[in-house]
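Hey Z.,

So I finally got round to the glycyl-adenosine-5'-phosphate thing we talked about over coffee. Here's the setup:
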Amino acid sequence: MSELQEDCPASQYKGKATMEKITSLAKRRGFVFQSSEIYGGQNGAWDYGPLGIELKNRIANAWWKEMTQLHDEIVGLDAAILMHPRTWEASGHVENFTDPLVDCKKCKSRFRADMIPEENLAAKKCPDCGGELTDTRKFNLMFKTHIGPAEDTASVIYLRPETAQGIYVNYRNIIQSNRMKIPFGIAQIGKAFRNEIVTKNFIFRTCEFEQMEMQYFVKPGTDEEWFSEWRRRRWAYYEKLGVKMDHLRWHQHGPNELAHYAKDAYDIEYLFPMGWRELEGVHNRTDYDLGRHTQFSGKDLQYIDQDNNNERYIPYIIETSAGLTRNLLMILCDAYDEEQVADKGNDDDWRTVLRFHPNLAPVTTAVLPLMKKDGLAELAQDIRAELKEDYATDYDQAGAIGRRYRRQDEAGTPFCVTVDYQSKEDGTVTLRFRDSMEQVRVPKAELAERIRSEIKAYKRIK
Ligand code: GAP
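And the result:
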């Protein structure tokens, strides 16, 4: 359950992004802001600004389409964050969802024991100030609160630490309401909360985050086959999204890393600027979860196979579990590029560009009048109004056209439409491509269709 690779070296990373650049661009352009910044910020929580929420929604939509629309046998769910507390006893989270924790008695710093050098742990010596460390104790990562007016043990409730359990407790409802037959899946996107001891690297590890999880229910004995199949499919998904494939790798969990529910688990890791880190997990959870919920709820959660002499069994579960907010960080790092575009010896020689896949870009098309005057602004607004029906658009008439292109490059807008004097005469506009910076003239009546075909044919060139 814990991720042990905080200190893995970043030396293999050859990209242009650094976490400082990504954090600063995210704030400057309205992707991600620190939560409650005017009060000094809230550790472990982040707010998604105008471009950030668009990007997050598009990543979620791409995943949702991939996992539900493209699979007849996978349906969606949106379960509550607050669940019956017995859920977390059954799932094993009350007992097992812990990190080992040590405190420094002198400087009061708090560390995950598995993230400080072994010699410090053995000598009980603080890696920051050399002070004495406390004994290691288990720290449960679930946020606990109370429901109702009384704050007693009977009112304890948890913020869910994973979305998966909402799926398991609805497994019977969904079989009955949607007449699902094994193998089938249930997909869900939603918030999860963990009281992480160490939150660092921007939005990589936070206390409040979002997950995109799919639980696939299979007949015992077919689980290993489905486990391989879902590993294959999740790898292919990132390829389709246009992610740099040499920045992805598999990591199989060793015996000490396996979560309490897992028989086998592989992470898809991404090479972030700070090194290789987990992006998504594919887990063989066996019949652990449904078995435990049967035991704790007293309800029969066996599947009855009507096509096979009413054979009864508790299904095995193959889980694919990706962080949505972590995917957003990955997409930002993956898209980030800096490029020299001129040789005049000033700042304008360079551009920062986010090479998002057009399906993920927060703004698909920006419409820019060359000048505000002579009716060009009005014409540009009319063109934008038409494009709005099909695409997320932006409009910018402020400053030199080169500067405006740079602003759109930095926001990752794949297409700019420039309206100039010729547009008034012959009804054509300039369509500029973010990645190549090439420009072509297109009749404005054909713009929407041209953009559609460009998106369909999109191949990342850098
Ligand atoms: N249901 C299984 C599960 O939750 P996990 O490996 O603990 O497995 C799955 O989490 C994914 O959720 C991770 O691969 C990561 O992308 C994301 N995730 C986990 N903890 C996170 C955190 N504190 N902040 C951001 N994302 C997190």
